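# step 3/5: fold
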Amino acid sequence: MYTVIFGVFAVWLSYKLVTHLRRRARSTLLAGPPNPSWLLGVGRYLTKSADPGLVYEQWAKEYGSVYKVPATMGYSRVVLCDPKAILHFYSHETFGYMQTELTKRSIENIVGKGILWAEGESHKRQRKALSPAFSNAAIRRLTPVFYDSAYKTKAAWDTLIQSGSEDWAIIEVQNWMNNVSLDSVGIAGFSYDFGTLHGKYSAVADSFASFGTLKPTLLGAVTFIVGLALPILTKIPTDFRILVKRLNASMGEIADELLANMRKESEGEVKTEDKSIIGLLIKAEGSDAELRLSQEEVMAQMKTLILAGYETTSVSLTWALIELCKKPELQTKLREELLQFSSNDPSWDQLINNLPFLDAVFHEVLRLHPPVGETTRMASSDDIIPLSTPLRTPSGTIVDRIAIPKGQVVTVPIHSMNRSCEFWGADAKEFDPERWLRPDGLPKRAQEIQGHKHLLSFVDGPRICLGRGFAQAEFKAVLSVLIRNYVFEFRDGPDTKIEIVRGILPRPAIAGETGARIPLRVRRVE
């Protein structure tokens, strides 16, 4: 038995070596950090780092704007920190650069074969079907949903403050932002109220919350890192994988029920006007056969909405409150801008166009704290990537483009590019919304970066985040209500330390708390 296993491994290793040599012969020689481990590459080093984005930035300074890092079991990743190279990469996504097998399996395990999973023509078709539901007109109609969630939160917080002996209360805001996002995406996404803002139990919310209490394990880290070479390892029942299965089951039960009800409504059995995202999608199917998605695909879109709503906007809102606690003067400035709407709420148009400091806060949070830290894809064919700045290779040759062979893994470090001092200036690591309002605009180097507002937080190209308008409207509507009505301070004073805990996506937490908890002192505005 062991002889057979050893023989299979030897054949696999020989194949990898031959493939590696062929790939190397077709690629540009690039500098990069030494390999600390044949099994793990730099993966373990990055996962243990407090700030992987800073590590990528330091490597770019040392090895150039495009460099190569060792990955697991003989693989390598080409890291792009050159704006022109990044633009080329994103513009060729879904066809020229596709998700690794590890990424595809991970996405399928969580949300199924929806738009996050799809590539090529399948992705193009699914995106076309979903686009009308994320238009400005559609988001404008959904904005009252976001305000409704914010005012449910306000009512609950007012009760908490009134029940105490002080004019303030200690409130764990991250859980509330989770509930705001989950209830909002339920109603706006598919006309379903999870009810968490009213204290209703939700298996979905409970499953999500459990990720924040998971402790890192060596098995989990190794499985994730080595999964690039051996995707089958994603089937190992780690604690994370068990939670994913539980989350998938709870989202699936809700999606099954809602989809059945929506199908009945679309077929005329129930007469209602459903303006939700999935409702509009199903309505479009009836008028355009080209836009019809399979039941599996619609189910996957519903799960994707739940995941994105819970794991992205809620985290961005939490980070906004944290940053505004660190700099009370900015919180005051934002409140002064918003108090012009003390008797009513800004319309969608006003949220988007007439509140410059709120807009600056949104984009600064997005810059410093992108929900996803990097994009990693595999080249589906040989490619030539152009550079905006010539690069010196280890052999001394100056090149203005690099050759990428088929099968090469390529990474864009979003967190690094968003906070790089080379592009954003010496204060790149600081929370400074004013940078978006300066008369001379953003730094010239930052303007070389493409993407939404010269940020990569929503990525770019054919996979640019379809829900970016939804996220912006929800963030601004909710934050406008909270900042107009409350003052936020750290419970333990201005020196409170924030750390990152690992869930489905990284989340902030106050050091010493159990899980992803952010208890703040919240008092009403007089």
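# step 4/5: annotate
Residues 140 and 355 are 16 Å apart (CA to CA).
# step 5/5: archive (pending)
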